[in-house]
Amino acid sequence: MKRIPDWLLALSATLLAQSASSFMGQCLPVVAPLLTRSTGLAPERIGNLSSLTSAGSCLFLAFGSPILARLGPVRSLQMGALLAVLAMAIAATGSWPALVAAALMLGLAYGPTPPSGSRILAKTAPPAHRTLIFSIKQAGAPAGGALAGLIVAPFAVAFGWPSALLLAVVVGIGSAAIISPLRRMMDVERDPTRSVHPRAIFSVDNVLTPVRALTSDRAMLTITALALSFALVQGVLYSFSVTYLTEAGMSLAEAGLAYACMQGAGVFARVFLGFLADRTGKPAANLTVQAFIAAGFVVLYAQLGDHPPLVPTAMIAMLAGFFGCSWNGIYMAEVARLAPPARVADATSGSTLVVFLGYVAGPSLFAAAVPVFGWHVPYMIAAGQLAAMAVVQSVMLVRAGK
């Protein structure tokens, strides 16, 4: 029997972990209309929970390098999955303090996913197909989100949102168990002597290590800046779409379906655009053009009126997701390509930390703007900043001769 290639095993493990992590992370935004109604909160407050989740990821990315080195990438992914399971169980209790704690824990749980995945794939992916393979792995994020929209939303309507969150418990435990056999192959470079004492984790040198890796290359900084701008857009699309559409008059099931179309488009887009970036050999230029197109479709998404019909709404959401939420694989492959082989995990942590600041700031600023401007203007602002950053990136690429 022919042996399965290492890169295919690595891709399968990271894709599963990415999908499961996304499914769990998107459960709260999907049930947001029911959640905020039952707790007496304003609908836009879901943005604060989304920002807390991103803040938790930032904390891990800033301080978690010793944990990654000590456990290895596969064990770190398992640790994240089980922490997310605990977060979902806490969130299902339904109190606001529990939701706050769960949102932060979900972010900490997601934190190991980008650097662990990059470390595994950078070691095993064939160079000629690196961007495509990274993009397939990143397609797990919208795939998990799409499944959350298709499964969790109707389940929440039928059985209540706390019961729907418990579906994520099964997903998290299952993913951690499935990837366990791959530890022997993929965790061989872990350092069991690496200290995870609080003094080591919170030391200045540990915090600066990812930052130094990021700032070692100007091209890495510019692609990170564009990814930060994309993250602002993706953060508000994913965090508020279900609430935005239900506030416009759609049912939760219809809004969940449109949201699933947005996420599902991202699955295909990440693979297709990753393949295209490999073929052109100019991933940074491709991503810049994509930013201009994405900004245009987000503007169109912002123009939806009251009681929008399902089919055109789903199509617009699909196009916004295709271009606005499919940048991640190209960006992460570029970071891995630009970083020295021994510093891929550190560079990914540093770059992703900056990007996640967009996930923190975007939903919180959006939530603050909705009571003042309504739902449409904040989406327009998000699109405008992405277009402006694409202009800056275009100038940088022209100057660099790319």
By CATH, the topology is Growth Hormone, Chain: A
Distance separating the two termini: 45 Å
Order of helices and strands: HHHHHHHHHHHHHHHHHHHH
Largest sheet: none
Total helix count? Answer: 20
**Secondary structural class:** mainly alpha
| Domains, number | 1
CATH homologous superfamily grouping: MFS general substrate transporter like domains
CATH architecture: Up-down Bundle
| Oligomeric assembly | single chain
Q: Which residues sit in consecutive blocks of at least 5 with pLDDT less than 50?
A: none
Number of strands: 0
Beta-strand content estimate: under 5%
Q: What form results from the Cα inertia axes?
A: globular
Global Rg: 20 Å
The amount of helix comes to over 70%
Please tell me the overall pLDDT.
87
CATH class assignment:
Mainly Alpha
Which features characterize this protein?
Growth Hormone, Chain: A; 402 residues; mainly alpha; 20 helices; globular
Structural overview:
- With 402 residues, the chain is mainly α.
- The protein has one domain (6-180, 205-400): Up-down Bundle (Growth Hormone, Chain: A), CATH 1.20.1250.20.
- Helix content is 82%, strand content 0%.
- It is built from 20 helices and no strands.
- It has helices at 6-30, 32-39, 46-63, 65-71, 73-91, 96-110, 113-124, 130-138, 140-159, 161-179, 183-186, 198-201, 204-214, 218-247, 252-280, 283-302, 310-324, 328-338, 344-373, 376-400.
